[in-house]
Amino acid sequence: MFIDVHGHVSAPSELYAYKAGLLAHRGAHGRGGAGISDDRLRAALHEPNPSFGGESHLAHLAAAGIDLQLISPRPYQAMHSESPAFLVDWFTAETNDVIHRVCQLEPGQFRGVAGLPQSMETDPATWTRELRRCVQELGFVGAMLNPDPYEGTRQPPGLGDRFWYPVWEALCELDVPVLIHSAGCRAPARESYSLHFIQEETLAVIGLLQSAVFTDFPDLKIVVSHGGGAVPYQRGRFAPGALRKGQRFEDNLRKLWYDTCLYTRDSIELLLGAVGVDRCLFGTEKPGTGSMRDPETGRWIDDIHLLINDIEWLDDKQRTALFETNARELFRL
Amino acid sequence: MFIDVHGHVSAPSELYAYKAGLLAHRGAHGRGGAGISDDRLRAALHEPNPSFGGESHLAHLAAAGIDLQLISPRPYQAMHSESPAFLVDWFTAETNDVIHRVCQLEPGQFRGVAGLPQSMETDPATWTRELRRCVQELGFVGAMLNPDPYEGTRQPPGLGDRFWYPVWEALCELDVPVLIHSAGCRAPARESYSLHFIQEETLAVIGLLQSAVFTDFPDLKIVVSHGGGAVPYQRGRFAPGALRKGQRFEDNLRKLWYDTCLYTRDSIELLLGAVGVDRCLFGTEKPGTGSMRDPETGRWIDDIHLLINDIEWLDDKQRTALFETNARELFRL
Amino acid sequence: MFIDVHGHVSAPSELYAYKAGLLAHRGAHGRGGAGISDDRLRAALHEPNPSFGGESHLAHLAAAGIDLQLISPRPYQAMHSESPAFLVDWFTAETNDVIHRVCQLEPGQFRGVAGLPQSMETDPATWTRELRRCVQELGFVGAMLNPDPYEGTRQPPGLGDRFWYPVWEALCELDVPVLIHSAGCRAPARESYSLHFIQEETLAVIGLLQSAVFTDFPDLKIVVSHGGGAVPYQRGRFAPGALRKGQRFEDNLRKLWYDTCLYTRDSIELLLGAVGVDRCLFGTEKPGTGSMRDPETGRWIDDIHLLINDIEWLDDKQRTALFETNARELFRL
Amino acid sequence: MFIDVHGHVSAPSELYAYKAGLLAHRGAHGRGGAGISDDRLRAALHEPNPSFGGESHLAHLAAAGIDLQLISPRPYQAMHSESPAFLVDWFTAETNDVIHRVCQLEPGQFRGVAGLPQSMETDPATWTRELRRCVQELGFVGAMLNPDPYEGTRQPPGLGDRFWYPVWEALCELDVPVLIHSAGCRAPARESYSLHFIQEETLAVIGLLQSAVFTDFPDLKIVVSHGGGAVPYQRGRFAPGALRKGQRFEDNLRKLWYDTCLYTRDSIELLLGAVGVDRCLFGTEKPGTGSMRDPETGRWIDDIHLLINDIEWLDDKQRTALFETNARELFRL
Amino acid sequence: MFIDVHGHVSAPSELYAYKAGLLAHRGAHGRGGAGISDDRLRAALHEPNPSFGGESHLAHLAAAGIDLQLISPRPYQAMHSESPAFLVDWFTAETNDVIHRVCQLEPGQFRGVAGLPQSMETDPATWTRELRRCVQELGFVGAMLNPDPYEGTRQPPGLGDRFWYPVWEALCELDVPVLIHSAGCRAPARESYSLHFIQEETLAVIGLLQSAVFTDFPDLKIVVSHGGGAVPYQRGRFAPGALRKGQRFEDNLRKLWYDTCLYTRDSIELLLGAVGVDRCLFGTEKPGTGSMRDPETGRWIDDIHLLINDIEWLDDKQRTALFETNARELFRL
Amino acid sequence: MFIDVHGHVSAPSELYAYKAGLLAHRGAHGRGGAGISDDRLRAALHEPNPSFGGESHLAHLAAAGIDLQLISPRPYQAMHSESPAFLVDWFTAETNDVIHRVCQLEPGQFRGVAGLPQSMETDPATWTRELRRCVQELGFVGAMLNPDPYEGTRQPPGLGDRFWYPVWEALCELDVPVLIHSAGCRAPARESYSLHFIQEETLAVIGLLQSAVFTDFPDLKIVVSHGGGAVPYQRGRFAPGALRKGQRFEDNLRKLWYDTCLYTRDSIELLLGAVGVDRCLFGTEKPGTGSMRDPETGRWIDDIHLLINDIEWLDDKQRTALFETNARELFRL
């Protein structure tokens, strides 16, 4: 059985038209709603989509044998940097509601991972209301956290800063994992949102490991997307600093979990070797950025299960851990 | 025959989902397109819409006897203040293309009024490329100008400033009128976009009349939306200043045109008396803000033709001028 | 009997030379005072003034039959945006003292309306000390409030914001009305102070009516200057929003009072029709902006009593209410 | 004969009321004028003034035996940091006109020194128009330059910067001296305008002497007010730097002139010794800051001629140079 | 023979005391110089250094068998973000002079790589004067470029921006390679300078490959430090974007060179596989960050030659290319 | 016996290389230390130094007969405006430690005056920890205070502001004097750090004397460096303001102490006359800015004892007070 911990919801255009409306009237029309019918929701899952290489979301999952996918909001649509903050609240809740309805429409296929209304105009403690609603009322199994709610326009506090503690507290109290995954990226940053994901993950790993977070929250479960940014590849650079503190950096790395959302086999191998198979979770972000066929191999670029299958040194137990049991234990599925 | 000079396009959710996507990826996915089928376009015109009091766009026009409506982009969706500027270009062009397709789908019912890509990151001279495309290639009959492309976040140059001259030049060269109509309004402004319309129209009228614009562009044809903001009602306040220059302010007011988009009869009467019937054009913004039935009268609030019909002192010639011939002459329809 | 609720004090040049001195030494010379003799004060009331069309303040009142005028500081001189705040305190108190002395010099002719030291560097609660002094010690009958103490340079909190509650509290406690009237207007705003009055009144009316102010302060008495800015003329635009809340916007408008300081008869008629005669107060701002003779009619532009007299449908009781009793009741004169 | 090179005009309150009006309407009332009668002008010179210790301007001059005084605008009223720039133009010209009228009203007693419209929103080259008008049309004998037109709110270019070259060029072309004298001082500066004078003079002397100004403008004549700020007293500090360049700092100091506007004898003696009697000019700033009687001595504090008389080592020729001939030569009186 | 393309100069404390002096007097003491004797220079190379694990610079090279090392300034000392710009000029030149003297003191052991005076207050064209001096007069074989001269305080133009073209032009004209290597990193950035290196290299690779730089400068030779940041590990993420343009991202990666300065074998292997052995250069940054012994292996962490030796699949020709001939050809050594 | 209250420590280059390192790694390398051996410390005192005119620190003292010198950090190196604040803490403590070691290495020759870690990012109360350490643990006899920790980049609170009260409290509690002495000066200020000293001392004297500081801290002992900036020379300017408060400014001046660090005899004489010999302390800042021989006299410019010796009217008791006993009493030596 394949459990994919890194999927994003596929929603119909009404959800994003709703967002566009919020950004246009800035609240003057009231909260309203996206007004999406079940038919339109189903169509968004079942109909072929040019953005997904001409296949539907469910067809992608079926072809890859993904039995269960954890789905969160499309990160780049999160609009965390928009103002006033209540717009972020409204759109986040509307999106989480769509995720919940999708989970109900396709029972067994999906579980929800909550987006948080991360406006920097509000205190992180207020973000956790939506987290509680999603976990306690809607049955979500985790949350997604954007380490840069400014979306590239200013420097936020690093993840090691006490600013984030209200979120860690709520996660520990609810006992659910959180997926580190940034959102949009606006000028004056030099990178697209997609490269920003990598930069933010690098900062997240180092920011967390050089802080007191895991001392203060020993039960906190953090999953870093896209194989941990640059860190596994660059981990040697952090070895001397750790040694000076009497630690080994590779041990520190194992305080976190990482998904396998990397599109080359050698990178996945490096990740598995660097942090250990037991700290890795199968994740594909499928369908999404990688949903294009490589003309040389004929494979979908995001067919990460094939890349893992190609790794010869993994034994069956390790494969099962990677594809299923690590996720099952961490998310208590 | 009724010609309504102030309508906005009704487009399907795909157009605004396209906009939401641009604001999310900030160009990283390329320009792409909204991907709207003719069926979805037609549905947006023919299907009942809760935002329009449960009627369709075309049903509204039919009920009010509007034979021809000039349609421009929905102003509050214009996103002029978004960055980088090419996003504004892309969305404006996509919207104008939708207007063009709507005009073709319902021949005789609509004529296009062009939105302009008014990013303050670009020179106004560059905005006129889209104006030329719409008029010369798509057959549009006029343009809409937002006097506050900052959308409430900063003070733009007043309409009397030379900043705007490239736009006036292009309008004169193409010999088409322009409708003054602001767009969104963001914090820190204290008003909603809808009240911002009124404030900006007030500033526009006074800014233009106290400038050299009509000396420098004697053939420029400017229509101010919503009955000219506060100015006709407050016009006495400007009389002394004009007298000091040997002018009468009421004469100056007649350098502009005004639409009748006011929802009370006394206001329309005041407007007609203040600026003259020959300077007024029938405009409804229908369906839109006023598309709600007044429970006391049973009328749609935006049934402006009924308010005009109620004005007893208008003779037939004036009514015809107001409902049809003023627009026909100004827009050369 | 005519009671004019909207007059401003005419003071000799020493008062404004005092202000110029404060702005020059920024407090280094201490508070000092304007040093105005009674003779100079009387001259400012009795002597012909080129700014007033060559007539004196008292001659204007006599000619218009104004028996009692409520006088406040000249708003455009208020210097609320100057720094440090104590300069605003000093000049406001000096001006209120001049008003008080004028009231004493011409007994029966004038009553004081207090200016407030509205520096945004200080808390509104501190502004009310001067309000109390004027009402409790100097016998003033009301206050004037500037909704934009930044004078066009930044966006202040809207009048519905809790920021203003200390002022509402003091007004209710003292049981005196307040006249909404903005002051100066500096760059980067696009409008002169005179047009700024209108813009701010529009914002004030809508800001107040869309807030909880009258729920929280049911006894608050607010008079909006210059006929309520754009709102009576544009009131239809706000009808749908009110209907959605189960209200009628025209009822809401009647939570406020309005003065008749409009210089065209049709505007005054529209105002009376829109808000009701019982919500209107005779106000002229005389002598001031409108103190110029219209060469066509030979009338002073600010001869608002003549405009009202021209309105045929007003009956005697309504005229008396408008000219006298509404003011008498509201201000308890 | 005593020639005092450092006096400021005493004008009636109308001039400053005019300034207050400009700052209130920010140009909306047009340029207008202060409207000062000759009687009011004369009164400002002849009437006892509490700001001047209860004596009139002319009485002060008579008592001190000042036969001729060069008068410039009151510096702290200059409002150079106000916006828009045309307000500075208007007020500067109005003040210079008052100076001109005063010179004509009291022939032989006064000669004019021009204020410049030093708005930092305009180019220094434009300031020189008023300089030319004053010298060529009104017969003024010099100008006053404020090295800090920002009046303490920002750092201006130092006097050695090329920014100031258009002023130096015009001064050389017109062949008139310039008096360095700053104007107002606003927060966030820590000093009053009066202490700001001293700080700016210190910066001016060092800024000029460390620059190429006197190489590029060998004929430029600059007089530094108030005895050169701190520099003569602190001159030893600048000796090593000059020596490293093969210069003596005391020689450099003699590129400038200094007035004697210091209120203690030892300070004047130090100045004379440091820069040489031939580089000093009798200046009193009388009546002004120092127009108060010292209770111990009974003298006016600004009776600088008495302090000079007390200096025993000055011979007659030196006294004459100081009191008269240095000024006569420099200003060509 | 081993050629190490990534070394930094070891200079005595006088060089950095010189820098501290510049930052203290901000130029008031003039340019001066560090005043370093040959003895002190030699000591900095030969004496054991606690920052280098208790060994000397030369001992490190000898132990690793590095026959020739290319040395550039210590990047984190570059002070590019300091002001005024001439301080950056002075310190950069002083440092390059020290590098030149070190090359002369130890003939055959070192070749110089020039630091550039990259103040954002100056135009990049002015930076190339120092580049020309180093290459043409001092015999340097390349340059080092900091893609973030703001050192973390603001967003600089991306490396694909035309801003950088004057540098590319000079490099092509001189026909020398450039090493991309950022410098310091100040608040508000969330990362240390060392992690900033990685983030900036990631941005550099993607910024360059998505731009027209290699079309406009086909002969430009750019070496990215530290194995290219995150990109080789994350390269799959960029495959779909390249495919949409008809390119393969791995081909694009081969437009650049990369050094092997990674401290784990798997990372070096991944790099070699991703970009090809012919695009990799032996680089150690030795002695430096990695000059600490790993207590498990007993090896110096920066003994990169040992890591490479451990890679079994490299044949002799490839090893020679990596250790020597690639560098020899690229730098024409 | 000569006691010099105004000396600064001469430290080897390692101290400033340590500072340069802190500014380069911004704390990433940890606090570390300058690693200065006793030999290097001694060399910095005993070896001829080109910055000191080719003599050593101790040779200067010997030649001038200075038996005891109070030494503080080199002010221009203080880096108070650098960020983050802990860098200022570290460097200040390192410098004070060096001062302490120098005092121990040359017993009887030196006593310490503490630098304070005056980052504006921290509260002044936190600065006093280092003050207490120096006085209570290291035996320092006073402290040095920089009135402008922003080093010319912004306006700090004036010395009369309550902001500084925690420092005054600690000084009174420890019963040690404080020397007012500013540090560096960065753009946008127009002056070098050396001229900034004078400007800041002027502001300090006036700021203190116009405040409540000496009412609130009657036992506070403040010494102003460099003869009090401009104030003794310009003191007449402040006489009228004091008289208006019933005070004499010269009495007020005597609330402070002043050192004689002025390089011309007339200036020292003026100082002694203005404030009284009992308020003056022998101070030379030797070796330093003035350590250059005057080619005319052959004297060192900073041979202030010779200037004092040249003052004929001083009697022996006054000389002893000036050279020794005033300092001995104030600092309790």
Structure description:
The structure is a homohexamer of 333-residue chains. Chain A has an eight-stranded parallel sheet. In chain A, α4 (85-105) links the parallel β2 (66-72) and β3. Chain A has one domain (3-330): Alpha-Beta Barrel (TIM Barrel), CATH 3.20.20.140. Chain A is of the alpha/beta class and 333 residues long. The longest helix of chain A is centred in the first third of the chain and has 21 residues, at 85-105. The mean pLDDT of chain A is 97. The two termini of chain A are 13 Å apart. The first copy, chain A, has helices at 13-25, 38-46, 57-64, 85-105, 124-137, 165-174, 193-209, 213-216, 231-234, 239-244, 249-253, 265-275, 304-309, 316-331; strands spanning 2-8, 66-72, 110-114, 142-145, 178-180, 222-224, 257-259, 280-281. In chain A, α1 runs antiparallel to α4 and α5 packs parallel to α6. Chains in contact: A-B, A-E, B-C, C-D, D-F, E-F. The interface between B and C is large, with 48 and 47 residues. Chains A, B, C, D, E, F: Keywords: Lyase. Chains A, B, C, D, E, F: It comes from Plantactinospora soyae. Chains A, B, C, D, E, F: Its EC number is 4.2.1.83. Chains A, B, C, D, E, F: One of its GO terms (cellular component) is cytoplasm.
